[in-house]
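Why DUF3558 domain-containing protein? Reviewers of the renewal asked for a concrete example.
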Amino acid sequence: MRAGSRRIASGVAVLAGFAILSGCATSPPTAFGEEWVSEEAATEDYFQTAAHLELPPDQDWPDPGYTGTGPDGQPALYGADLGKVDASFVWYCAWGRELVSPESSEDTRAQAMAHVLEVTETPYYTVGLQAGDREYWREQVVDPLLQGDIEGVAKDVDTNCS
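Here is what the prediction returned.
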């Protein structure tokens, strides 16, 4: 497994942990939807979304790490869109890393830039980020990237894609 894949896997584990803690059926609606789904349904959504997203060469989709039991021993439920959000987040992080990696070829960087610019059409952006976060993300990441400045992507990947 490449170092980037390990980082992606650890990022998914963090997301899964967040989902368990915030995914109790007695909790108010989350950013991931007002409906709740099982571990199996969230995992299925994750891999169905992943099937439509291409990772960089030599990278594999990590298991999302959802569990059927919460920290209190009760059945864990997940926001209905969490699998889609997580898969598109893993995809964004993988391409964001390729974009900012000094080891990436120019062709890989060009491909990564195109993918990173597509993130605004993914569940990570449209569902996973709150409206204010989407605006900030567009101003700090997308707009500079359109001008060829990858610093916003580098900061975002460093902060959020550990």
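The chain has two domains: 3-81, 89-160. This is the kind of structural detail the renewal will allow us to pursue systematically.
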